[in-house]
Structure formats: structure tokens, C-alpha cells
Design a protein that fits this description.
The chain contains six helices and no strands. By secondary structure, it is an all-alpha fold. The chain starts with a helix and ends with a helix.
Length: 146
């Protein structure tokens, strides 16, 4: 039972930290977009993708928790529980940090779109580069669980 609880705790921490990173990132992008749209509501479609980019870390945490729960059983050993806990940590850390910083990076793009909306497609690249680390954390966590 303790091994099972440890595994579930790791998965819950991962989902929670990834969700928190996304929420903080979305707070930043949503606030910036609100200011831009107050000045020019026609720029909604230009800033929308930049606004929602930080949401993906929360999705990754949710997906890993679902995948990980498939490995949890009442008969698991302490080592198996610890393995799942540890396997969730790469995504927990990268999801939290990248969600926050992806939001901050996207804010710069949102402000740039306010000045020149033709840049919107190019500006997605910069926050997407931050996203790479959440994806790497997800891949490592999945590989460690297998």
C-alpha cells in the first residue's frame, strides 16, 4: 500500500506542478492579451495562439498521470513505487518551469504583435523553443516508466 501511495504521490505532484506552470504562464499571456485587445480587438486571432501556448504543460502532466496510473497496482513493491515517483519528476520540474517561462516569452510576442501584427506567425517560434523542454521532460518521464 505504501508503494502505491508513493507512486500516486509522484504522479499527483507532476500533474499539479505542470498545471501550476500552465496556470501561471496563462495568467501572464492572458493579462498581456487583454491589454492589447483593449486597444485593438481585431488582433484577437493574431494573439490567440501566443496566449494558449503555456496550456500544454498542464496537458502533458495530465497525460503522464493517466499513463502512470496504468502502472500502479496494490501489489507493487516499494522499488516500483519509487520508480514511478522518480520517473514523474523530470516532467514535474520541466513542466512547471517551462510553463512559466513560456508564458513570459509569449508575452513579449503579444506585445510585439500589438506594434506589428504581421510578425504573429514568426513570433510563435520563441515560446515554442521553451516548450521543447517540457516535451523532453515528458519523453524522459515516459521512458523511465517503461
Amino acid at each position: 500500500m505504501e508503494a502505491q501511495a508513493l507512486a500516486i504521490l509522484g504522479l499527483a505532484i507532476c500533474a499539479g506542478l505542470c498545471g501550476a506552470g500552465s496556470a501561471i504562464g496563462l495568467y501572464h499571456t492572458g493579462s498581456a492579451a487583454s491589454g492589447v485587445l483593449a486597444e485593438d480587438p481585431k488582433k484577437f486571432s493574431k494573439v490567440l495562439i501566443l496566449v494558449v501556448l503555456p496550456a500544454t504543460q498542464g496537458i502533458y502532466g495530465f497525460v503522464l498521470a493517466i499513463i502512470g496510473m496504468g502502472n500502479v497496482s496494490a501489489a507493487m513493491t516499494a522499488m516500483e513505487g519509487a520508480k514511478i515517483f522518480a520517473a514523474a519528476m523530470p516532467l514535474a520540474i520541466t513542466g512547471l518551469i517551462s510553463g512559466i517561462y513560456q508564458g513570459k516569452t509569449a508575452v513579449g510576442g503579444i506585445y510585439a504583435v500589438a506594434r506589428n501584427e504581421k510578425l504573429s506567425g514568426k513570433l510563435i517560434l520563441f515560446p515554442a523553443m521553451v516548450e521543447t523542454y517540457a516535451i523532453l521532460g515528458l519523453v524522459i518521464s515516459i521512458l523511465l516508466m517503461s
